[in-house]
Amino acid sequence: MTRNSRLLLSALAPAILYLTTQAATPPKLGSRKAPLLTKDGLQFRDLNKNGTLEPYEDWRLPIEKRVADLVARMTPEEKAGLMIHSSLSGFTGPNGEVLGVPSTPGRGGPPRGTASNANRAFLGRANQNNVEPMGSANPNQLVVERNVRYILVRPNAGEPPEITAKFHNGLQELAEAGRLGIPIVFSTDPRHGTARPGAGKPVLSQWPDQLGLAAARDLELTRQFGQIAARELRAIGIQCLLGPMADTTTEPRWNRISGTFGEDANLNATLIKAIIEGFQGKQLGPESVMTVTKHFPGDGPVKDGYDGHNNYGKWTIYPGNQFDLHLIPFSAALEAGTGGMMGGYFIPVGKDTVAINFSKLMINGLLREKMGYQGLVVTDWLRNMPWGVEKLSEKDRQKMMVLAGVDQIGGDNDPSVILASVKDGGIPMTVLDTAARRILRPIFQLGLFENPYVDPDQAKTSVASEAYLAKGYEAQIRSTVLLKNAADILPAVSGKRIYVEGIAPEVAARYGTVVDDPKSADLAILRVATPATNYPYGGAFAMGFARGNSAPTPPPPVATYGITLAYGNAANWTVLEGIRKVAASGTPTVVIVNMDKPAILTEFIDSVAGALAAFGASDAAALDIVFGKAKPTGKLPFDMPSDMPSVMSQAADVPFDMDDPLFKFGFGLTYNR
């Protein structure tokens, strides 16, 4: 080959690479602050505004080459900014503009881990965990001054999709105007649940809880949920889901069971793969929503059912030596190509003495080396949950996490802490570079370097469309489980007199005449929460009330057990009194339980004619089953206990080990007519 031939081949290499490795159609570019470049008859975004096509701007090149080029151009400050996964809410203007000060208050309240006078005797001093207060930050500070590029966003309640889309576009403009034009990844917690009646048109399609998808037992339905949710989130400018939860719920008292796929690790694994494939596709791309699977290596066996947001709930325990069982769904998530992984809050007793995100044994040792995961690792929002490292400074805590293999600190907003450790040599530059590569790779895969913007008009018409709402409604129905149907009282006859509690009267009126006295009704339908516990020492995630229920009534004087799954000594013990009173009226009574966790129904099950478990179904979906517009097909995703002694004696990490459950995993009736 002559020298001229080699030069020609070298010049044509990018175009040849594009034709052989990329789609035949160039990507659609979106630029508002960066000019476009033309080379070889193709267009590119000049993100660093220097008039030259750099490798990281060249969409024809392999992603790894683009990532390496960009990391080499970044300052330590810019790399540290990537390692913060911040939160932002309240800065949306009435027309979607980005405000400098919040128009509405964000999620606030006293810092977690503080103690009131009432519980100080139990918790100790107000700042016993040595938590340094974190200041607030506005959009300009986050994006421009601190180089943050992953942001958890919380739109205002009822905010129209087109307003949310405009706001995200405005933030992307701030990022595009930066030195290197690195776009933002916007993340969200799961937000496709059902709303109460009268809330207006839903902002997104409405689906059952993740636990409800497990009750529906349909891989394709679960995959379709991920696909539809991804389309809606991408339409409003969100590209990352902080989910799904892959925790296997072997401790029935835990208060986050509704966000999981239930008690069976293998069913959990199968559904985890399906939901990730729904959100991401076979691999991350411009239409994907990246999943961050949580809470590695499994928060299901939490001690005594308490919650890891609190220092009294910071341990997972393994009395049955079933630690590896809880890894099964996380292995499935890795097989499905999950874009990210989130470590849990908890200390795994017998495995390490510090919480997961501080543990080199758990992150670098187990997740990265043993399980082979080399992708993005994000901490949970844990600044106020430094379990096992309470005596360390914030600087030493963050350094410990980064050296353990963590790439991003969740819930923080200031990279200066990490940067200080880089500057004094505590965090080597090679570690910073490795984290930067892992963080940047998904941004390229998601297509954001080509076009980070969305069309507000398309968001307005495509999000919560009739087709998407219908599919979510179908899933709500299919997730509902019929537990009891004495004398085939169900399906009920429409058009009769009905008495309802816990159900919107305007919804119930579609099925019959609503009356005020159960004695004058032909059928009574009660919708209730599961038993709730008032923690005597307070804390986050403590109440456990199902959606739409009122605040708790003071409990009986003595609570025999800690967290209870029985109504008799629960904070909302009056639920049981109400059921018994209506059932005693002589009117056939049907109880719909909002089943966010296993509940003990033996206190009333014999006195009612029918019982159903709802896993995030709307009133209308539940009543469609009661009145026979649809048949119940759901199956329980966990065992339902008969009494508290059987709950107390089961091993926290072992599935299906309760004595004589009232209803077993997989139970579910249907109609004979």
UniProtKB/TrEMBL annotation:
Q: What class of enzyme is it?
A: hydrolase
Pfam families from the UniProt entry:
Glyco_hydro_3, Glyco_hydro_3_C
Q: Mind telling me which residue stretches traverse the membrane in this protein?
A: none
> Keywords in UniProt for this one?
Glycosidase, Hydrolase, Signal
Organism's domain of life? Bacteria
* Stretches assigned to the Glycoside hydrolase family 3 N-terminal domain: 141-441
Q: Which residues form the Glycoside hydrolase family 3 C-terminal domain?
A: 578-671
Q: What family name appears in the similarity comment?
A: Belongs to the glycosyl hydrolase 3 family.
User: What name appears for this protein in its UniProt entry?
Assistant: beta-glucosidase
Species of the source = Paludibaculum fermentans
